[in-house]
Design brief:
GO terms for molecular function: ABC-type transporter activity; ATP binding; ATP hydrolysis activity. It is built from eight helices and 20 strands. With 356 residues, it is of the alpha+beta class.
Length: 356
Amino acid sequence: MGNLAVQDLTKSYGSVHVLKHINLAIDEGDFLVLVGPSGCGKSTLLSIIAGLEQQTSGSILISGKVVDTLEPKERDIAMVFQSYALYPAMTVADNIGFALEMSGVPKPERLVRIQKVAELLQIEHLLQRKPGQLSGGQRQRVAMGRALVREPKLFLFDEPLSNLDAKLRVEMRTEIKKLHTRLQTTIVYVTHDQIEAMTMATRIAVMKDGLIQQFGTPSDIYDRPANTFVATFMGSPPMNLVPVTVEDGQLIMASGERLSIPVGVNAAAITGGKLLLGLRPEWIALADQGAKDSFRMEIEVVEPTGPDLYVNLNFGGQAIIARLPAGESVKQGEYAQFLIDSSKTMLFDADTGMAL
């Protein structure tokens, strides 16, 4: 296993700046997820770490060693691609062991390592089949096995689950997480799916327009987003953003509704200016009629998801979403009282989007 450091890394194609001063570091055994919308630079960053592309400036260090000038095969990394990239004429066993054969590993040792990895991934019964005889999930396991058998310092995953159907994607997500827990491998994983990022990572780097918007643990990213992009990109449904101003130590909506300033925010320091109050849907709860500090809201749409209800509300002319437990008595077109947990809410500068 190895640690990874990316230091002031940039990548440009002529006048187009794809990556802009990227800095991040993870320890041995960390599971780093690079997440962001298409075109944000996450796959380019992964390719540079792998040595498949060359950065314009900055450095990559693996286990404390600068690898900028090393070829991919010299970096002691293994990569799992979105397309699996299996050799169709080879058996599963030969696909898994191909890199070992090319490296001159003796056949008896190859067979032992192939069998060990196959048992770990529960594909030992598939070793004599060819890729065309496998399902999508089985092919993905073989691609993972080919990476694992090399025992590298760093594993790189480039959107490996995007070709799978929804059910299989959830199953494979769990399998990869189990594998990481069992082996404590160091992983860098690229995805555009924020659910994958939140459920798998020990560290997340949220990217947009070639910049890291926030780097931290999943709870950091979710509970205390650095800006409105992170707040709305990470989370499903996304964080509600309600325009407010500050007056007499309270937040005032355009409709005149008054809300508490989030705990820990200095009211004197934010007087004046346009602000956005951040509310996660689960920070809004149904209240009894007449409950103190509750707000009367119109229920516009109710969306049952099984364990939860997503309730679209009209809050003083502002559309927001609440996540309520299944079974709550709410009906479309009616009004109800709701409480907002001000101990968790956040404030953002409306012009810059930055958290206060």
